[in-house]
Amino acid sequence: MKAAIVTIGDELLIGQVIDTNSVFIGSMLEEVGCSVIEKVAVKDTETAIFETMSRYQNQVDLVILTGGLGPTKDDVTKKTFARYFDDELVLHKKVFLHVKQLMEQFYKRPISEMNIQQAYVPSKCKILFNEVGTAPGMLMVKEQTTFVSLPGVPYEMKYLVTEKLLPYITKHFQLNAIVHTTVLTAGIGESLLAEKIEQWENSLSALDIKLSYLPQFGMVRLRLSKTGTDEEQIKQQIHHKMEELEQLIPDFFIGISNASSLLDEVSRLLKVHQLTIATAESCTGGSIARQLTSLEGSSAYFKGSAVTYATESKVQVLGVQQHIIDTFSVVSEEVAKEMAVGVKKLFQTDIAVSTTGNAGPLKGDSEKEVGTVCIGIATPEKTETVTFNFGQPRSKVIEAAVHKVWFLLYQYLKQKKSAI
Amino acid sequence: MKAAIVTIGDELLIGQVIDTNSVFIGSMLEEVGCSVIEKVAVKDTETAIFETMSRYQNQVDLVILTGGLGPTKDDVTKKTFARYFDDELVLHKKVFLHVKQLMEQFYKRPISEMNIQQAYVPSKCKILFNEVGTAPGMLMVKEQTTFVSLPGVPYEMKYLVTEKLLPYITKHFQLNAIVHTTVLTAGIGESLLAEKIEQWENSLSALDIKLSYLPQFGMVRLRLSKTGTDEEQIKQQIHHKMEELEQLIPDFFIGISNASSLLDEVSRLLKVHQLTIATAESCTGGSIARQLTSLEGSSAYFKGSAVTYATESKVQVLGVQQHIIDTFSVVSEEVAKEMAVGVKKLFQTDIAVSTTGNAGPLKGDSEKEVGTVCIGIATPEKTETVTFNFGQPRSKVIEAAVHKVWFLLYQYLKQKKSAI
Hints:
The structure is a homodimer. In chain A, helix 3 packs across helix 4 (about 75-85) and helix 11 packs parallel to helix 16. Chain A has helices at about 10-15, 20-30, 45-55, 75-85, 95-105, 115, 155-170, 190-195, 200-205, 230-250, 265-275, 285-295, 310-320, 320-330, 335-345, 395-420, and strands at about 1-10, 35-40, 60-65, 90, 120, 125-130, 135-140, 145-150, 175-185, 210-215, 220-230, 255, 275-280, 300-310, 350-355, 370-380, 385-390. Chain A starts with a strand and ends with a helix. In chain A, the strands form four sheets. In chain A, strands 2-1-3-8-7-6 form a six-stranded mixed sheet, sandwiched between helices. Chain A contains 16 helices and 17 strands. Chain A has about 425 residues and is α/β, with parallel strands linked by helices. At the A-B interface, helix 1, helix 2, strand 2, helix 6 and helix 7 of A face helix 1, helix 2, strand 2, helix 6 and helix 7 of B.
């Protein structure tokens, strides 16, 4: 079963917002076995929306549109939807009562003419009732293709996809199993890796397994994908191929992960070993803490972070000695070490990591080259430090430093594992 | 001048990565007056890429493709590019020497057969020389349309766009001025706002100005856009319309901003007033600190943050009194107040903000309802606290709390402004 995702709005085209809606929809569709073959962002004009719907007609089984369902004049999706199906907009009583209630109870004002417009839908459409907002989802079928229009507000869209659309899809479509398995490798470049695994890579095509290389900051993720009817068999085939791969590159093979980063693996190992962690962040500015707390249940191991951005805060909050800063510079392994030790003591944890660096574009309180980052890791056994240069721009330095912290933590925790 | 952006890779379709490349390209093209009318993500197969190129042929002036230029077998863009132009791949000597040098100096190993492949390009293409990576950008023209292929690695793509592609565009194309101006409003819903400004909105069409509503967490951004030849005249027209709007809704009009959030405005006002700030974050887990440090030059006002995720860390690090936690619960305005006061003292700043809440999905150390967030703001004058419920899911609670912090800081700083 094939699907296309259409996101509507000029803000997506001029770079004003980052589209995360289609990311969510894509991952949800893949999970139930619906293959997304294309996604497109179009202008919020009737012509652009109509032409895009026509283009996918009978080319895919399902088209999901998001956005352009608000009450204001710039939102034209519903009108276009009705026109595409030669239908007219009629007042939907249940939606009307829902909008009225929302206005009166939540916004404390009577329903307005503009609110009432939200209750109008194409007469022949199936409503995906939106309990968490005013704009309903709409589903209509033309020939071989089902079209679904969803609001662009992320949590309303997510609610409708998980609660209304996915149940509809699994009931009405013949679905294949799609299995994607991603493995992390580190310490080897993309092209050298490809040379080492060439024969193994060639063996995949006989099994109809597709291999993709996803390089990222000194790591290469390898994704194996296969679509078919027998999910168990596919999983076994891929599992077997992964075992072969591990034997082929034991020094670089980190582990199988369906997440996009090492973070989940670090999180899992912290829980396994019942270790607590704190972070002292300067140049990463809270990014490490934020990623840890983005995971549900992280309070089991994450105690907190001291984001000591200013040099004097490193002294005041973490107890870094001023003469060490004066002697070695604030961007130095000596300071990274003191920060890690200081925050470990402050939050009374088993492990602590620290970062201090010049993210750029200008040098701060240190003469060290722009892009330089020192990382400290304090464990129950010892405190280690290491220096990297991640170049420029600023955003890359911060992102690369955070990645490196996960990798260093992973290495420590993995070795810990084998010692048990 | 019209453009389309094509991003290549299955990872974009299955929701494995968030596409930020097209966001960057879109904003850069708009800045030089090139209007992006569509962007599309396609599978990394020759068929998908070829068909997409054909579809835009003579429909737009410029097509920018990113991704699929790596040395491995899953990367097929270059092959497809050559085929589309009936061209053959030939070794480019300058690129070859550059790749060889990169391998020898940076990776400390001889150039391999696979690396050499990166130096092959279509014989008739114009090279966009990639000083920061191995894969060159390629530019070719067919009939009315110029096609450009760029690597998908973000910093290589950004380098080639800013250093090579934009100069080419401004030299070879007739460009219009595109002016987008975004204004922030807050404290009024989208539909009520639309009713209040209906007549003003109607007056825009006579000037060919397009209005878009962009609602987001209790704020509505209004974007005015116009394309034309006389940039100064357009700017004046939009400026005049914005003045009218401010008079129409003085209580809700926050200010003109070409950024997507209040953060830039808060940052600007902190600098204007020479005030320093620290944050004490529990449920937001470092997100506030991270956003502040993402801005260049933030070290002028941001001293640091205490991410006290665990309840005991609020006591140990910030000096929150245990009996206050026991009496009022860790998610309470009383604790938010102590956190703000504590972090202000710890980092010795003028202002401090604090967050403590239940982001969910499960309740933590507090019995307060999931979604509840208490925010504290300590200023030189006083400390205030406020409670919100942002519902679910977890990611929305965190994002909404951060937005609310910017809004509260903005309100404080704006009032401060008028007092000077």
